[in-house]
Amino acid sequence: MTLHRTAGRTTAVLAAAVLAVPGCGGPAARQDAAAAAGTAFEAAIAAGDHVRACVLLAPQTRTQLERDEQKTCPAAFASQQLPKASGIDRVETYGRQVLVRMAGDTLFLSLFTGGWKVVAAGCTPRPDQPYDCLIKGA
């Protein structure tokens, strides 16, 4: 009997800990956190803060950008022709993956230990094909 109560308390504590992780929780909380990360990314680009934009990229995306441009991430961002975006039109959540549609741009984000990171940016839909993205991971 004591073992059962302990297991129940452990489960409750683990559930509370999981919900406390940034970006976790219910669908609305995940969407809000991902939308905030997407908005911060677009604001960094609009301000020309390429260092901040690089921090908001997923590790694989940052590595791919640096490899493609053969420059450090901030220098590589300076040569990108990303569209200007504003406002959130829609956020679609798929577990640890999120699509953020804004006026002018579509972003794909994933949830990492440190929060939501952009895995693809400058994305445009193509009929019956995957999105075409200017910046994306491998």
What is this structure, in a nutshell?
With 138 residues, the chain is α+β, with helices and mostly antiparallel strands.
State the domain count: 1
The count of helical stretches stands at 5
- Oligomeric state of this protein: single chain
Structural class: alpha+beta
The share of residues in extended strands comes to 25-35%
For this structure, what is the CATH class? Alpha Beta
Biggest beta sheet attributes: 5 strands, antiparallel
Please state the second-level CATH architecture.
Roll
Mean pLDDT: 82
Share of helix among residues? 40-55%
How far the N terminus sits from the C terminus, by CA atoms, comes to 51 Å
Contiguous uncertain segments of 5+ residues: 1-24
Global morphology:
globular
- Could you spell the SSE succession in H and E letters? HHHHHEEEEE
Return Rg in Å. Answer: 18 Å
CATH third-tier fold name: Nuclear Transport Factor 2, Chain: A
Strand element count: 5
User: Order of strands in the sheet with the most strands?
Assistant: 1-2-3-4-5
Characterization of this structure:
The protein is of the alpha+beta class and 138 residues long. The protein has a single domain (23-136), classed as Nuclear Transport Factor 2, Chain: A, CATH 3.10.450.50. The protein is 45% helix and 32% strand. It has a 5-stranded antiparallel sheet with strand order 1-2-3-4-5. A hairpin with a 2-residue loop joins β3 (105-112) and β4. It is globular, with a radius of gyration of 18 Å. The termini are far apart. The relative contact order is 0.16.
